[in-house]
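pinned: reference chain
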Amino acid sequence: MKKNLNITLLLTLTAVLAGCSKVDVEVPSVQTSSSSSSKSEIKTPAQKAISFDANLYSQQTKSDYSELESSFRTYAFYTGDFDWNSSLEISDMVKYINGDEVSKKGSEWSTAVDYCWPKSGKLSFASYSPVSADLAIGNTRENLLNKTGYVNDGTDLLIADLAANKTQSNGKVSVLFRHALSQLMFNFKAKTLSANGLDFEVTVNSAKVSSVCNTADLNWNSTNNKISWSNQKNAQVINVSSEETELTTEFATLGSNAIVLPQSLSNSNGNIELTVNFTIVTKKGETELDTTTITETVSLSINDITAWASGYCYIYNITINPLSNDVITFAPSVVNWMTNSSQASM
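pinned: its C-alpha cells
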C-alpha cells in the first residue's frame, strides 16, 4: 500500500521553505515544569543547523579516507517517520534541500543558507561533486541521480553513498564520495640500452590512445550505491604525451593520468588502441650506426582487462626492446584510484 506523508506536514514544510532560511518542521511542543513557578510553560526542542563531514575513499577501502577538496551539491529528502527504503515514493517526499552547494568554511562544511534539522522525521542526502556536473534527480531510488549525454572533459566526477535516515541526533552528516570515472597511467622503459658491444638510445616521440568514448549516460542507484554507465559514444583521442622522452631501463610515467569514461575496450568505435612513435639510435662507442623511427599500435584489451570500471586506475607498463622484432610489449594492471593526479589532454 502506498504510503503518504501527512498533507498538513507537507504544506507546513513547503511554506517554511519558501519563507525563511532556517527550515522548521513543527511537532507538538513539550510541556515541562518550571523550577520557579507552579505554572507549566510550553518549550520546543532546540534545533541546530545541518552541517557535513565530506570525504572520499578508495574503491572498497572504506578506511582509506581522504579529505574532499572541492565543494559539492546536495539534495536532502524528508521522509517523515518512514525509512528511505520504505514504499514511500520519491514524488511523495519533500526536497528539504534542493541541490544547494555545500562548501568548506574553515573546518566546517555547510550550505550558504542554514537549514535546521527538522524537529521530527528523517532526512536522506544524495550528493555529487563538482557542482558544475549538473546531474539530474530521477523519479525512483534506482535512478535517483542521472545524466543523459554526460560529456567527459577530464574532470573528476564524484558521487556520494546515500546518507540515509539521518536526524539531529546523528550530528554531522557523513558524506562519503566515490569516483564515478576511470583513470589511466602509462609507464615506459627500455628493455636494454646496451648489448653485443652496441649502445642504444630509445626516445618516445609521442603516445596516444584512440577510440575512447567521451559521452555516455550516467545512472546512480541510491538503493545499492551503484554507479553505472551506458550508451558510450563519440570517439576521442587521448594524447598521452607529445614531448620527446628518452627512456631508461626503469619505468617512468609519461604525461599525467588520464580521466576517462568507464567503457568496454572494444566498442562501437572500434578497439581502443595505444599508438607509440619512437626512435631507436644504435651506436658503437661514439659512432652512430643507425637511426630508426617506428610507429607501433597495440590493443589495450589484454590479460583479462577488457573494460574500464568506475573508481579504478589502469596502469599500462610498456617496454620497448631495441633487440626484438616484438618491439613493444606491455603488461597492464589495475589498482584503486590514484590520488593527486591530473588528466592527460583530450
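why pinned: The two ends are 51 Å apart (CA to CA). The mean pLDDT is 84.
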